[in-house]
Every structure is written in C-alpha cells, then in structure tokens.
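FW: tagging you since you asked about this chain on Friday. Here's the raw sequence from the shared folder, copied in full. Didn't touch anything.
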Amino acid sequence: MQIRERSSKLEIPPRGFVLAVTTLALYVAQLAAARASDGFLENIHRHAMLTSAVTDNGDLNPYAVVVAPVSAGRIQKGDVLVDNFNNLSNLQGTGTTIVDYNPATKATTLIANLPQHAPQCPGGTGLTTAMTMLKSGWIIAGSTPSNDGTTRTKGDGCLFVLDSNGNVATAWTGADINGPWGNIALIDRGVSANLFVSMVGSGVPGPDVRDPATGYPVTLHKASIVRFDLSIPAGKPPMIESRTVIADGFGHRADRDAFLIGPTGLALAGDGTLYVSDAVGN
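HL: got it, structure written out here
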C-alpha cells in the first residue's frame, strides 16, 4: 500500500486587508457596546418646532407642560397645556398665561390670562412648573410671584384652581403653601385625588444675599413636599380635605438666572413610591 503525502500551501492575505477587517470588527464591537449603554436622549436625532408659547401680551419662558387627560370646556383630550413664568419684560415670577396646543389641528390658543396682581394669591401671579389637569376637567396651577423678577420681592404665592375655560374658581393658600414650584405628582381617581407639590419659597432672600463661605446665594434647608388630599364634587371645584407636609429639609436658594433652585422634579412610580429631585443636594 502506497501512501502519498498531500501538501497544501497556506495563503496569507495582504497585511492591509487584515488591518481593515480587524478595524471593522473593533468598530462593530464598540458600536454594539455604545448602543447597549445608550439612554433615551442619545437616540433622539430629530427635533421639530410645533408652536410658540409666547402670547399676545408678551408672556414667555414656558414652565409647566401638561397633556390634557379629558375633553372639557375649551380643551380637548390630548391637548398640551403650557404656562408662562415670565412677562413681556422677561421678569421671572410675573407670567400670567396658559396656552393650549392641539396636536391634531396644530392650533395654539390662549386658555387663561390671570390678573398680574390677583388679590386672592399672596404676592400675585407668577405661574410655575406646578400645574396639572384633573380627570374632572379642573386645572390646578401654582404661582410663585415676584415684582422685580427676583426672590427679593417674592410673595408666598398660591395654587390657583381654574375651570376648563380658564376661569379662576378659587385659590388655595396657607402656611404650608409657600412657593409652589415643582412638577405636580398626581393620583387621580375622578371623585378624589392626591396631589404632591414641592414648596421652595420659605425664607428665601434675594439673590444678592451671599454665603461668605461659598460665594453662592445663601442656602436654606426649608423646602418641603406637601400632599393635598382632594375631594371633587360633581360640577364643583375640588376641595382640600387634608394637607400634610410629608417631607422637608430640602435645600433651596435664590438664583439670579433660575429664580429659585430647589426640589423640582416629582414623579410617582407604579408601586406608589414618590421620587423627588434634590437640585441643591444633587
């Protein structure tokens, strides 16, 4: 039996080809790793301007953005409500207007224009991020007002209650309402509701009062979160059944650019946990 040995020649690709394939493999691996770690914002590549919140009276600086949960009065379900914190002179704490953007018709209309010096609201009107709309059609909007655009002339403010045509029904005030500020977290059952609102105004001086140790405006730790338990009678404005300070001691301070810095973001998880962003404490 004769055995023949068969030889084979190994063909080595050109060096440039090997480098190209290696580089491509590394790029694909890096891209896959980057995509795996991407958050929400990294994947947004298109932006489209839909409307302007600037009103005929010159109000600007949109703060609260709320999607209407129901159709009521002049508001359609899915409309986007936006309020303004600044007036024509760009002074913070002086905005009085709420606009309504309808995504279907692309129309933007003025829903509410509150008095600048509303007598039922201590200090007047300066609409903040603290706004929501209930399933019953009522709108609740926080006011942290100022006369000169800084906290030097800040009033305690209030929570306005408006109907779905933009008319003020009442205003909630009290010792625990001082600078309603952050996003309202809401549990709405239709006939009752729980509102969670941050209050950031207690004791805040003007932005020129500085802490000598840091050079920043003086930081206090009096900001709080208040829970309002509401009953909502049919055809009548919501009523506060009880109100409770559920957390306090958050840092807050004046700021010449942002007016106030304090707990702003409030969100409820599915298990009922309330999350609050502590801006001063990071």
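FW: The CA atoms of residues 70 and 77 lie 4 Å apart.
HL: agreed, and The chain is about 10% helix and 35% strand.
FW: great, closing this out.
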